[in-house]
């Protein structure tokens, strides 16, 4: 089939010789923020699309999988989660999911770029519907600088919802950053960070878990889930525990579209090629 290129957005993955295209019906917004190029489109099949520096951040249709898997598994594994920090996450999808848990007393979100949150509030209002919850607070600054000054032991869960490890986000994957996160975690604290595609970025996942261990966190593990508009269509989040990985989790009683108790277990199963490569 011949594609009319002006009607399609294509994100190329040159290292892996492939690409993903979405059909567009309208450009809704474009700006260069102080940090990145921000674009919003209406697509024909995936609702609205947000790009940062030409990379897909989210679509209306499939973002629920990512946002639920970045939040509910770790919250359900913590014995008594009260204070949560989100670093990145400017679209507010993770924030909305965290706030579904009534036992959470406070969620602070730190994103570099206020314009991402502005665009999300305007074009993805469903993701920002809980932004006025009195338990939520937002600040706009560098997440690395923020965590380096955080009070020791003050967060039960830290969620790193960042872009790929390039530019301003590269330091969010560093050992120094994980060391500061570890210091800011409470005794049973859990760190979880988006860790890219298991198929394309296995080495990155391996190195993230090694760095988490290096800074004193325990039992690093990866959650696997589909994400059809991210490179390879298959994504991951990697986590590590201040006091060791709990043997069970609390079944959650909230409304979800992807996450449930069976998914919680299944998402932690390591594919054989990764087990073999990690030997
Ligand atoms: N789910 C998306 C993905 O995996 O591609 C990430 C979405 S979220 C919009 C990523 C956010 O990280 C962006 O809003 C960006 O501004 C933010 N970000 C990048 N570097 C950052 C930093 N150093 N500190 C805080 N936020 C940062």
Write the layout of secondary structure elements.
Blueprint: E1 8-13, E2 18-32, E3 37-43, E4 48-52, E5 55-59, H1 63-77, E6 83-88, H2 93-99, E7 106-111, H3 114-123, E8 136-140, H4 143-148, E9 155-161, H5 175-184, E10 185-194, H6 202-214, E11 218-226, E12 234-241, H7 261-266, H8 272-278
Parallel strand pairs: 6-7, 6-9, 7-8, 9-10
Antiparallel strand pairs: 1-2, 2-3, 3-4, 4-5, 10-12, 11-12
Helix pairs in contact: 1-2, 5-6
Describe the protein's architecture and organization.
The protein is an alpha/beta fold. The protein is 27% helix and 32% strand. It has 8 helices and 12 strands. It has helices spanning 63-77, 93-99, 114-123, 143-148, 175-184, 202-214, 261-266, 272-278; strands spanning 8-13, 18-32, 37-43, 48-52, 55-59, 83-88, 106-111, 136-140, 155-161, 185-194, 218-226, 234-241. The strands form 2 sheets. The protein has a 7-stranded mixed sheet. Helix 1 packs across helix 2 (93-99) and helix 5 (175-184) crosses helix 6. The radius of gyration is 18 Å and the shape is globular. It starts with 7 loop residues before the first strand and ends with a helix. Bound molecules: S-adenosylmethionine (SAM).
Give a quick rundown of the structure:
This protein has 8 helices and 12 strands.
**Number of helical elements:** 8
Succession of helices and strands: EEEEEHEHEHEHEHEHEEHH
What is the CA-atom radius of gyration, in angstroms? 18 Å
- Helix proportion range: 25-40%
Provide the residue-averaged pLDDT: 96
Distance between the termini: 44 Å
- Please tell me what the overall shape is: globular
The profile of the biggest β sheet is: 7 strands, mixed
Which regions are unreliable across 5 or more consecutive residues at pLDDT < 50?
A: none
Q: Which compounds are bound in this model? A: S-adenosylmethionine
SS elements, strand count: 12
As laid out across the biggest beta sheet, the strand order is 8-7-6-9-10-12-11
Query: How would you describe the oligomerization state of the chains in this entry?
Result: single chain
Structural class of the helices, strands and pairings? Answer: alpha/beta
Strand content: 25-35%
């Amino acid at each position: 089939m011949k594609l009319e290129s002006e009607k399609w957005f294509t994100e190329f993955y040159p290292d892996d010789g492939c690409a993903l295209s979405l059909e567009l019906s309208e450009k809704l917004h474009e700006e260069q923020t102080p940090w990145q190029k921000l674009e919003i489109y209406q697509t024909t099949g995936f609702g609205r699309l947000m790009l940062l520096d030409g990379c897909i951040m989210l679509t209306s249709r499939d973002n629920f999988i990512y946002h639920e898997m970045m939040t509910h598994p770790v919250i359900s594994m913590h014995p008594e989660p009260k204070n949560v920090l989100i670093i990145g996450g400017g679209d507010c999808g993770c924030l909305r999911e965290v706030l579904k848990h009534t036992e959470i007393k406070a969620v602070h979100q730190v994103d570099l770029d206020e314009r991402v949150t502005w665009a999300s509030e305007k074009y993805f209002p469903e993701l920002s519907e809980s932004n006025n919850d009195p338990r939520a607070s937002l600040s706009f600054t560098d997440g690395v600088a923020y965590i380096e000054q955080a009070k020791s032991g003050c967060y039960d869960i830290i969620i790193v919802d960042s872009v790929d490890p390039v530019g301003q986000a590269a330091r969010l994957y560093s050992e120094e950053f994980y060391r500061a996160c570890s210091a800011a975690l409470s005794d049973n604290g859990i760190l979880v960070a988006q860790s890219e595609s298991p198929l394309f970025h296995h080495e990155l996942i391996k190195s993230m878990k090694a760095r988490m261990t290096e800074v004193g966190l325990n039992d690093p593990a990866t959650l696997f889930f589909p994400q059809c508009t991210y490179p390879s269509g298959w994504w991951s989040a990697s986590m590590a525990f201040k006091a060791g990985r709990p043997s069970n989790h609390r079944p959650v009683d909230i409304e979800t579209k992807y996450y449930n108790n069976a998914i919680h277990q299944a998402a932690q199963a390591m594919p054989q090629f990764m087990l073999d490569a990690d030997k």
